[in-house]
Design brief:
By secondary structure, this protein is α/β, with parallel strands linked by helices. It has helices at residues 18-29, 45-48, 64-88, 106-121, 131-137, 159-172, 290-303, 348-363; strands spanning 11-14, 34-37, 52-53, 99-103, 127-129, 147-151, 155-156, 176-178, 182-187, 193-198, 203-205, 208-211, 232-242, 253-258, 261-267, 272-276, 311-322, 329-332, 338-342. The strands form four sheets. Strands 5-6-4-14-15-16-13-17 form an eight-stranded mixed beta sheet, with helices on both faces. Strands 8-2-1-12-19-18 form a six-stranded mixed beta sheet, covered by helices on one side. Mean pLDDT is 96; it is low at 1-5. It binds flavin-adenine dinucleotide (FAD). Flavin-adenine dinucleotide binds next to helix 1, helix 2, strand 13, strand 17 and helix 8.
Length: 381
């Protein structure tokens, strides 16, 4: 069994989702020889995602270190997007449009006011708005909304254009794309890892292996599962609607609290509108369910009634790589030359650039940036 690559790459990245592709591209840019193993690169959770880059919207109680990482990630995005567009000769539609959060009823408004205080205490920009101020910023909002807030630093990128550009940037920078499923890691007599076995029985040797298989990261064979951090699938339903790009319904992202439930509406420059998303613990069930689609549409149209006029183009589900504390795992495992980059849960698109920087640092024998250091893979083992 031989490597189709001719010689041994510095690293094989298993999983070409937004995390693996970003890491592969930046590692190749840093001069490393890299391969990505994935039968369907870019078609995991990153394909169905909404592409919000939302440090303020996603800040949650008890997750202060994660919020600092989200902020660092948001700050990294403009240069990452510009470099990627240059490398791929393609657009990713990074859009610094900000986000308006709105409350539908009085208890939604109270809930929103409570979290605003918390978000501001973390240094996030989250400014309260009256109902009429919300409607001035977003004329399409329902007349009955009870108030809201603006998150001026919560932006977006077109996640599909992003992964498409990442694949092209990888290609142009010499990353070897191996279109096959990885089945197992091969162990060395000293307990490390020296390569990847593929489903078609080929073996690819590597200087190091990085597992970036999203929610499936723990399914790789050849290593005891307890060596790998606990990731699980967290299902999300999401919708894509189409309107007229010349007369966009929304100019910025809207997050809505609707009788205690959350939804968001993310407008794209091409006239499409992404409406998401449910958060469901249903194992690896990816079935599209009528009730979830109905609930999402119903909530979204209570915030933005003009939605009714748009064409419903796509209903989809995806599986986020969830972790016990909602934070990613990026670092070396206890097995020599085996690293992981997974568990990015609801924010893998936002976190892709800082995670990729971290993976490049690890492969170069350096430490990850201090802001990423709390997220080592052994913290939940
Ligand atoms: C509905 C929904 C909305 C979301 N919205 C946002 C958002 O607005 N903003 C945001 O930042 N994040 C969002 N996310 C989260 C984001 O999509 C994920 O955190 C991110 O995609 C994780 O990236 P990943 O590369 O780890 O996994 P994935 O994107 O799932 O990629 C994993 C890859 O690994 C490959 N793979 C798996 N097993 C193997 C194997 N054995 N061999 C080879 N390859 C394998 C798969 O084919 C896949 O390509 C959303 C997710 C969902 C589901």
């Amino acid at each position: 069994v031989t490597s189709p690559l001719g010689s041994v790459p510095d690293a094989i990245i298993v999983g070409g989702g937004v995390i693996g592709l970003s890491a592969a591209w930046l590692a190749a840019r840093a001069g490393m020889r890299v391969s990505v193993v994935d039968p369907a690169p870019g078609r995991g959770a990153a394909w169905v995602a909404a592409g919000m880059l939302a440090p303020a919207g996603e800040a949650a109680y008890g997750e202060e270190a994660l919020t600092r990482l989200h902020l660092a990630a948001a700050a990294r995005w403009p240069s990452f997007a510009a470099d990627l567009e240059e490398a791929a000769q393609d657009q990713v539609c990074y859009r610094a449009c900000g986000t308006v959060a709105v409350a539908i009823d009085a208890s939604d408004r109270t809930a929103l006011e409570d979290v605003l205080e918390f978000k501001r205490s973390l240094g996030l920009r989250a400014d309260p708005l009256s109902a009429s101020e919300c409607r001035r910023l977003v004329p399409a909002l329902a007349p009955g909304i009870r108030g809201g807030a603006v998150f001026p630093d919560d932006h977006q990128v077109d996640n599909r254009r992003l992964v498409t550009a990442l694949i092209e940037a990888c290609r142009r920078s010499g990353v070897e794309m191996v279109s096959e499923e990885a089945s197992a890691l091969r162990r060395t007599p000293t307990g490390g890892v020296d390569g990847v076995e593929l489903r078609d029985h080929r073996f690819l040797p590597a200087g190091a292996v990085v597992l970036a298989m999203g929610w499936r990261t723990r399914t790789i064979g050849g290593v005891p599962p307890e060596v790998l951090p606990p990731v699980r699938p967290v299902k999300g339903h999401i919708l894509r609607l189409r309107g007229d790009p010349a007369e966009p319904l929304l100019e910025r992202t809207v997050r809505a609290l609707v009788h205690g439930r959350s939804c968001y509406l993310v407008p794209r420059l091409d006239g499409s509108l992404v409406v998401g998303a449910t958060v469901e613990e249903r194992g690896s069930d990816e079935r599209l369910q009528a009730g979830a689609v109905h609930a999402l549409l119903d909530d979204a149209r209570q915030a933005v009634p003009g939605l009714d006029e748009l064409e419903l183009e796509e209903c989809a589900t995806g599986l986020r790589p969830g972790s016990p504390d909602n934070a990613p795992f990026v670092g070396w495992t206890s097995l020599e030359r085996l690293a992981v980059a997974t568990g990015h849960y609801r924010n893998g698109v936002l976190l892709a650039p800082v995670t990729a920087d971290g993976v490049v640092a690890l492969l170069a024998g350096a430490d990850v940036a201090p802001v990423l250091a709390p997220f080592s893979p052994d913290r939940c083992l």
